[in-house]
Amino acid sequence: MALQDFTHRGEYSLVICEKPDAARRVADALKVQNLESRKIGYSEVFLVEVGTKRYVICSAAGHLYTVADTAKKRSVYPVYDVEWVPLHQAQKGKHYVAERIRVISELSKDASGFINACDYDIEGETIGYNILKYACNGKESSALRAKFSTLTADELRNAIATAKAGLGGNLAEAGRTRHVIDFIYGINLSRALQQSIYSASKGFRPMSIGRVQGPTLSFIVSREVEIKTFVPLPYLSIDALIEKDGQKLTANYEEEKVLELKLAEKIIADCKGKDGLVDEIKRNRFRESPPTPFNLGDLQREAYRCIGLTPSQTLAIAEKLYLDALISYPRTSSQKLPPSIDYRKILRGLTEISAFREHALQTLAGRLIPHEGPKDDPAHPAIFPTGEHPKRQLEAKEFKLYALIVRRFFAVFAEAAVRERILVVIDIAGYKFKLNGRTTISPGWLYFYLDYIMHEDRTLPDFIEGEKVNVLKVEMEGKMEQPPPRYNQSSLLAKMEEESIGTKATRSEIIRTLYDRGYIDGSSITATQIGFAVVETMQAYSSAILSVEMTREIEGSLEDIEAGKVHGEQVIEKAIAKLDESLSLMKGSEKEIGNRLSSAVKAAVAAEYILGRCPVCKEGKIRIIKSKSTGKRFAGCTNYSNGCRASAPLPQKGTIKPLEKECSVCKWPMISARFARYPMKFCINISCPTKKGAKVV
Amino acid sequence: MCRYHILAHESLETGFKAWSERMGEMEWTNYLRRVSELLDTGEWVKDIARAELQKLES
User: Which of A524, A528, A449 is nearest to A490 (CA)?
Assistant: First the structure.
């Protein structure tokens, strides 16, 4: 085979990378004299000669091995006997994995040494360990470990040259244990739910729940309950409109919320026709510290806030930027930037990119001491730009995220912003009203990060203590307290982080799964009927799965494995014991659970088809119907059998969602139809008097 | 009533006390009307308020 051309030339070390792009980068970095490559199907293998040393570089494509149950009977649970198998044996459509394993296996036979050059974290360690163990026939203990945080040539050369055995510590054991526990929880609980539905309705619906999915879904359901049982309470806010040097200013009564109407009315009455007196002027100069360097969670939140990227989009784009060697490894918890990354070299590199040149030069001229946060990660520093010039045209979203990371990098080295708060207290009839001003004395880091912050100065005219002030009017406004906000993907991610559930790498994936399963919906996240049903079922039969404590305890045990305090088998045994209690309860109540879930699924499916109330008979509902003869969809009344003939055509392509409101003119239901990028919102009545084409939103 | 509507009912009753303290004595019916029209009132609270109003009106 073509590989023999490489393997029969003499002694070589086999370097295993996590992804094909990373393998190419390693090969390019090591290339001094000669670089050859061979393409075998999907796999590209490189041969590099560095002096007398020879390296053959190959790559995985993420995980090549996965956990599977030994029995392989899909409807059976509980299942606790599991094994690691090649991914293509457990999942459909992964045929390329077989070929990659075969190539690596072939290359391993004549290799004199092995270097694990997968990403240096728990997943990378697990990927490399499994390949060395299974594809390379038990080389996991003798292989060397290359440690790097960026894919820049210098760092990769150094990482390969200084690769050592045992550098990964117990990361692989912790990683493998996490995979086994997650598999055992996921497969058993999901099968329990699916089997329950089957025993109640003989139907099938993909359902899942896991030790991180459970508590996350539970947060959303609890918030939904809070919102749906919320009663807004009234309060009053009181403002005084004053005039100074021809400028009209609004001063707020010192109590932001006046809870009693009588008190508010008395204040208004007492202030009527009175002048104000400047009682006190307070100036408070304060320093606003620069932001800390990005870890993955911080980056995902900031990208959501500033650019509108979802956490999973941010992670995917950040990984691309990492593989392009533009930023450091993104799956990090660290908020620290050690001097070893060479700040000056990075900044000099950024001066070569016109969009950042000016800011990079200014940062270079300052003190290069980063404002670090408290969080650390033993494997990687915070996310930073490498200073390398993009080798390709970045897409708009990629550039936006890259720019955010670069500007944040500048900001962390900048001085604190110095700002001044001015508070003018005005006494009107013995009541204190406040005027707040804010000015920036020195912008510091705000200068570098201005595109991403809400920053507004409010300058007040010069007041003197004891000065009389003209009060134009004092008014009250009735307001209502607000319900707690729904989670969005960013705040949900923050909640998961705060509760220490999931990992930096898996949280966004968990949120995605909740959407895919139909448990949650919308960008302002609501729990669906199915989501509610799953949480209620778990509360009734296996509340531990929803508890943050249980999953947090498992996370703690996994950290203990990393620290060498406990072995993986012990942690797995304990986790199984807990799961087994829940599964026994569920097994004994399959029918009840199934009935509960099936009715929620049925109601949810039916609700998807209901567009709104029928404007013609006012009794039935307008729903989506698929014509048996033509296969086309249209809207018709559920009261058809009683004579209502209300109907309307519907778009034949795209997703249709009811907007849960009526057209203000014809009273037919409004829908949202998504054909391409933008949804169109319109009333379905083609005879609606206002109809002049659909409105693009 | 399901457990969520029981919660909503409790919330509606607690709310009435708070509304009366803040806005002065008010009629239960008047309170129900106002609460059921507010944009931020929870969906299940609105269900209960409307059902209570229907009961009072019939």
Answer: A524
Chain B hits for A480, CB-CB cut-off 8 Å, are: 38, 40
Q: How far apart are CA B58 and CA B55, in angstroms?
A: 5
Nearest to A474 by CA among A247, A260, A242, A236: A242
Instruction: Report pLDDT digits (tens) over A85-135.
Output: 999 998 888 888 999 999 999 999 999 999 999 998 888 999 999 999 999
- The residue whose two tokens read 């693009």 is A696
Strands A53-59 and A13-17: parallel
Handedness of CA A23, A25, A27, A30 (dihedral sign): negative
The model carries a pTM of 0.80
Report the C-alpha gap between A512 and A518 in whole angstroms.
10
Q: Which residues contact A190 (CB under 8 A, 6 or more apart)?
A: A207, A208, A209, A210
Active site residue A55: no
> Which residues partner with A422 through β-bridges?
A283, A437
- Name chain B contacts of A262, Cβ cutoff 8 Å: 24
**B44 vs A228, A232, A480: nearest CB:** A228
* B11 contacts in chain A (CB < 8 Å): 229-231
Q: Identify the DSSP state of A490.
A: H
Mean pLDDT across chain A: 90
The answer for residues whose C-beta is within 8 angstroms of residue A542's C-beta and 6 or more apart is A189, A582, A583, A585, A586
- Return d(Cα B16, Cα B22) in angstroms, integer: 10
Tell me: pLDDT of A41 over 90: no
Give the DSSP letter string of A586-609.
Answer: HHHTHHHHHHHHHHHHHHHHHHHH
Find the angle CA(A566)-CA(A124)-CA(A206) to the nearest 5 degrees. 85
Residues whose CB is less than 8 angstroms from the CB of residue A93 and which lie 6 or more positions away in sequence, other chains included? none
B-chain CB neighbours of A259 within 8 Å are 21-22
Can you give the pLDDT at residue A218? Answer: 95
Interfacial residues of A (vs B; Cβ cutoff 8 Å)? 225, 227-235, 259-262, 480, 482-483
DSSP B20: H
pLDDT of the residue at A238: 96
Question: Contact A261/B24, CB-based, under 8 Å?
Answer: yes
Cα distance from A312 to chain B (closest Cα, Å)? 31
Selecting among A329, A431, A452, A487, the annotated active-site residue is: A329
Which among A230, A234, A235 has the least Cβ separation from residue B42?
A230
* Chain B nearest CA to A233, separation (Å): 6
Classify A115 as helix, strand or coil: strand
Domains of chain A and CATH, by start: 4-169 (3.40.50.140), 204-228+489-601 (1.10.460.10), 234-288+425-446+467-480 (2.70.20.10), 296-413 (1.10.290.10), 614-696 (no CATH)
3-state secondary structure of A680: strand
Residue of A225, A231, A236 to mutate, interface with B, max B Cβ within 10 Å: A231
B53 exposure class (CB count in 10 Å sphere: 0-12, 13-18, 19+): middle
Q: Which amino acid is at A362?
A: Q
Q: Which residues of B touch A (CB under 8 A)?
A: 4, 7-8, 10-12, 14-15, 18-19, 21-24, 35, 38, 40-45
Cα four-point dihedral sign A367, A371, A376, A381: negative
Asked which of A330-334, A344-348, A565-569, A692-696 is least confident by mean pLDDT, the reply is: A692-696
